[in-house]
Write a structure and sequence with these properties.
Blueprint: H1 2-8, E1 22-34, E2 39-49, E3 54-64, E4 76-80, E5 83-87, H2 92-104, E6 107-108, E7 111-115, E8 125-127, E9 134-139, E10 143-148, E11 150-151, H3 157-167, E12 178-184, E13 187-196, E14 202-203, H4 204-217, H5 231-251, E15 254-257, H6 259-279, H7 287-298, E16 304-307, E17 318-320, E18 325-327, H8 338-341, H9 348-363, H10 376-398, H11 406-427, H12 433-443
Antiparallel strand pairs: 1-2, 2-3, 3-5, 3-11, 4-5, 6-7, 7-12, 8-9, 9-10, 10-13, 12-13, 14-17, 15-16, 17-18
Helix pairs in contact: 4-9, 5-10, 6-7, 6-11, 7-11, 9-10, 9-11, 11-12
Length: 444
């Protein structure tokens, strides 16, 4: 069985070990969720790489003695002991096993299912197509279950932060309805989170890129003259972000960082750049300028307010509902260590992430060879307008303008862009020009 998994894992969108050689995959734990045909098991796989490092992944596997329906053939992993094994999240019958356990709050082996609201176990499930680092299953257009794929031992920031904000009355998060925990490395670890499905909402990335397309389609209008101008929404999103940051500071730990912490932050930024240069040689021409920006952080003597933050904030993590903007996925960057994702940081890191996302929305179409590259100036105009609008909204809600902290904000934007170059180099090489263009702007 695990040999099948080892061959299958690298092809999954959410697998974080792409480009690394797997030495072996073993079963860390297994729990039988549905004893029928198909049989459904929740399995935690321990992946060991040739360099000795180890990662854990959550798999929901179904096996059957009969052939699968044609619509599930793409989810087949292989055959084992005369049974066909497939990824159960794509089968409504199999994935409902998780919902049924969440509805009754059961315990299965080392798994613990908890609910804080009534859950209908009969709702049919479907996988959302936009898989990233996790897998999301929508049940009956009512609730959505996020299955955390790559696991790190300990409390997941997503449920920790979201629950704290929801309990404090925030309207800018989707409250947790249920979740389930298991054990990874001997520690209790959140494996999945059930929340309301915000039916009828609009994805921030989709809205922003539609606005960019409207601008590109116009021959002589500026960004503020196009019918699809997004700046108003960007300002409202900035205000929502400022409100959430302010509430996080009240209900979760916060502190004031001094010069020693600023120096440690600068060292971390340098280390990330060092690692990225090994993967993306195109960064070399900008390295000196980026290091100079990081050194400015190291020489800072003024205190820095630090707190819990979102940690992976961009337009794909927000939804526009009829009531306003809702922020999702507070787990931070899944590739970062859990201790880092739960650490107190400057909220400017989240601001920098969203500002980078505006650049992405404006420039990603230019990465396609069929686009006219003379549109670059229009992309920059759109990005600048929406970046400023976001900061205006943030300042109105948080009482402090992010642009007043230019040194920190620039360093965090560069750090995020460096992270993006590594991602693009490994996953979408044709998009590498997008973060490189921003680095060029930030270091000019």
């Amino acid at each position: 069985m695990m040999r099948l998994v080892q061959d299958w894992l690298p092809r999954q969108r959410w697998f974080g070990g792409k480009g690394r050689t797997i030495a072996g995959v073993e079963e860390s734990s297994s729990a039988l969720l549905l004893d029928s045909d198909p049989e459904v098991r929740l399995l935690i796989a321990e992946v060991t790489y040739e360099d000795g490092s180890v990662e854990h992944y959550q798999l929901l596997l179904a096996s059957t003695k009969t052939a699968v329906e044609q619509r599930l053939e793409y989810a087949v992993i292989g055959e084992h002991d005369g049974r066909l094994v497939y990824d159960a999240v794509h089968d409504p019958v199999a994935s409902s096993a998780l919902l049924e356990h969440l509805a009754v709050g059961s315990r299965v082996e080392e798994l613990s299912f908890v609910n804080t609201a009534e859950v209908d176990p009969t709702l049919p499930g479907r996988v959302l197509g936009a898989e990233q680092s996790n897998t999301s299953v929508v049940f009956g257009d009512t609730v959505i279950l996020k299955i955390f794929r790559r696991l790190q031992p300990g409390a997941n920031p997503d449920i920790e932060v979201t629950k704290a904000l929801a309990d404090a009355g925030s309207t800018h998060v989707a409250p947790p309805l249920a979740w389930y925990d298991g054990r990874v490395g001997g520690e209790v670890t959140t494996l999945g989170l059930l929340q309301p499905f915000l039916r009828g909402s609009s994805d921030g990335w989709a809205m922003a890129t539609a606005s960019v397309r409207d601008l590109f389609a116009e021959g002589d209008l500026h960004a503020d003259e196009v019918g699809g101008d997004f700046a108003g929404e960007s300002e409202r999103l900035g205000a929502a972000t400022g409100e959430v940051h302010d509430l996080m500071r009240q209900v979760l730990p916060s502190a004031t960082a001094g010069p020693d912490e600023s120096q440690a932050t600068a060292r971390q930024l340098h280390e990330r750049l060092d690692a990225a240069l090994l993967v993306v040689p195109e960064l070399a021409e900008h390295a000196d300028a980026m290091r100079a920006a990081y050194d400015e952080v190291a020489t800072r003597t003024e205190p820095v307010q630090v707190q819990r933050i979102h940690g992976d904030y961009h337009l794909g993590q927000v939804l526009r509902t009829q009531e306003g903007w809702v922020l999702l996925d507070f787990e931070g960057e899944p590739a970062r260590p859990l201790s880092e994702r739960r650490a107190l940081m400057s909220p400017l890191r989240d601001v920098a992430g969203m500002l980078r996302s505006f650049d992405y929305a404006a420039r990603h179409l230019l990465a396609e060879s069929t686009m006219r590259h003379d549109l670059a100036y229009r992309a920059e105009e759109w990005a600048t307008r929406n970046r400023d609008a976001f900061c205006d909204g943030y300042a109105s809600a948080a009482g402090a303008d992010p642009r007043d902290e230019a040194v920190l904000l620039r360093a965090f934007e560069l750090d995020k862009a460096v992270y993006e170059t590594v991602y693009e180099a490994r996953n979408r090489p044709t998009w590498l020009s997008v973060p490189l263009a921003s680095i060029n702007r930030l270091t000019a």
